[in-house]
Design brief:
The protein has 526 residues and is mostly beta strands. It has two helices and 31 strands. The chain is elongated, with a radius of gyration of 33 Å.
């Protein structure tokens, strides 16, 4: 059965004007593990048997984020349950997981109209046979007050302009946000509605435009709904309206404001409790409280308020103690080594004990007279301890040179900054790099690189800063050793050689390579 055959089946089976309303409402979700067969049926049992034989069942297929059309319908509806069936399309059927959200009620709920339509003829593919079946429908203007577990119903307009995008597997998909968060992902019942206007040139007749819709990524906050038709990709596609109802219980924490920075946590669908958030990030964005206590970041401050149940104001951003920083540089001879490490000492007496010290490095080839651009070098620190750390550098460039190199080509210095805490307006932290590649070998190594971010520059700490834009729109030239280089002039003249820290930033969202495929190394020349 082809995918277009399946969609023709959808048009006849899925069109449900959407609505609801009666206290006998029942709903749920069942899974359809799809094997090698595209048709799958399973038995659904109602939590409570209905008292009447006039039972109506509506079903919507929930897909597993692969944007493939699927058709669902019900058979053998009784007072105790029904049979639900699904036909899947597209590749990967043997590993596909579908589920069906269903809704059932009996009779005609107050304020609604219900009915059944019988289709006398059903065709699919190249085979035709007579098959009489019925279609249940229900219509309403408002949700009856007795349906407490149907808190949201709405309609979504999908314009479906242009060609269906490939990212949605050549269908149209749109995200829907709930008005309020649910306690658990709700069951979603949908119906696609299409208005045919014969006098409008691009309006498509229902007989020539079978439609199918399904849901994806149902969460407590919303879901995605997708639509496919049988029109050619470059042909006009009709606008449709998706009517939906969300069945479930709302989060009891909606509209709850807990005191003392506590967070509302639901215990059940009807009960909640206010709890302190005990897990905070490790980065340092210090805050000094009115009591003279330095908190690592805002989360730690709020946690202390929550646990003590006592409000304490903030005196100022930054630590209550002075920000401590040391800088310097150390020589590094890489003339005969591809990787070199050197132990560097600093004055530990200036730092607070029992608090971590952060170190940042930048490789600096300044002071050489050969005029050559060097190979890319990566730097990192190891064994940061009281009064000392190890600075390491590794050549990662192409190492392609014609002719002999000058004697001082391998000489370099490492500019370093050691600091403790975070300065006012600064943000300091250590991040865990979970994946690290070297050469052709992959190994998981935990490396905690230090980082530092500023919203504005603390002048007592640093003299100046600047951003240098590298468009890199052309191939790098041979004279720069296949690297991109730019000259930077300081804003003032310094009495001594300053320590310079640099860091490369890259935005992959603006026509750029993903970070996974675009390693960047930066360094300083003369």
């Amino acid at each position: 059965m082809s995918s277009s055959t399946i969609i023709r089946c959808v048009f006849l089976v899925i069109f449900i004007p959407l609505v609801f309303g009666q206290q006998s409402l029942q709903f749920g979700r069942e899974s359809f593990p799809i094997d090698s067969k595209t048709l799958k049926c399973t038995t659904f049992t109602f939590p409570k048997p209905f008292t009447s034989s006039d039972v109506h069942v509506h079903i919507t297929i929930h897909n597993a984020l692969i944007h493939e059309a699927a058709v669902g319908w019900v058979e053998e509806v009784t007072q105790t349950g029904f049979t639900g069936c699904v036909v899947a399309s597209g590749p990967g059927i043997s590993t596909r997981q579908l589920s069906a959200d269903w809704m059932a009620f009996e009779g005609s709920p107050p304020g609604t109209q219900t009915g059944r339509i019988q289709f006398p003829l059903f065709t699919t593919g190249t085979r035709c046979w007579l098959h009489r079946f019925t279609k249940d429908w229900v219509a309403m203007t408002t949700t009856p007050s007795g349906w407490n577990e149907a808190p949201e119903n709405n309609a979504l307009d999908m314009l479906n302009t242009g060609s269906p995008p490939a990212k949605f597997n050549y269908g149209f998909c749109q995200n829907v946000s709930f008005a309020e968060r649910f306690f658990k992902p709700p069951c979603i019942i949908t119906t696609v509605a299409h208005q045919y206007k014969p006098l409008v040139p691009l309006s498509i007749s229902p007989s020539e435009n079978a439609l199918t819709e399904w849901t994806e990524a149902v969460s407590r906050e919303g879901f995605s709904v997708c639509v496919k038709d049988i029109q050619a990709l470059d042909a006009p596609h009709t606008p449709v309206t998706i009517q939906f109802i969300a069945l479930g219980q709302l989060d009891p924490c909606n509209d709850v404001n807990c005191p003392f920075y506590a967070t509302c946590k639901p215990k059940s669908a009807t009960m909640y409790e206010c709890l302190c958030d005990l897990y905070c990030p490790t980065f340092e964005d210090n805050l000094c409280s009115a009591q003279g206590i330095t908190y690592n970041n805002e989360c730690e401050y709020k946690k202390a308020i929550c646990l003590s149940k006592k409000h304490v104001g903030i005196s100022h951003p930054g630590s209550c103690k002075p920000f401590i920083v040391q800088r310097g540089f150390a020589s590094l001879d890489m003339s005969s080594d591809e990787m070199k490490c050197s132990d560097i000492s600093y004055n530990a007496s200036n730092f607070y004990s029992l608090q971590p010290v952060h170190v940042l490095l930048t490789i600096n080839h300044g002071g050489q007279t050969n005029g050559l651009v060097h190979d890319a070098v990566n730097t990192w620190v190891e064994n940061v301890g009281e009064g000392a750390f190890t600075a390491c550098a590794m050549k990662s460039g192409r190492l392609e040179h014609e002719g002999p190199l000058p004697p001082d080509y391998g000489l370099a210095s490492v500019d370093w900054v050691a600091f403790q805490g975070s300065p006012r307006g600064g943000l300091v932290g250590v991040e865990l790099i979970e994946n690290w590649w070297e050469g052709t070998t992959c190994k998981l190594v935990a490396l905690p690189p230090s980082w530092l971010a500023f919203e504005y520059l603390p002048r007592k700490t640093f003299a100046e800063f600047e951003s240098v834009y590298f468009p890199n729109g052309k191939a790098p030239v041979d004279s720069n050793n296949h690297a991109f280089c730019q000259n930077v002039t300081f804003k003032v003249n310094y009495m001594k050689k300053p320590t310079v820290m640099i860091s490369a930033t890259h935005n992959s969202s603006v026509v750029g390579l993903l970070p996974d495929y675009n390693s960047i190394t930066s360094w300083i020349e003369v």
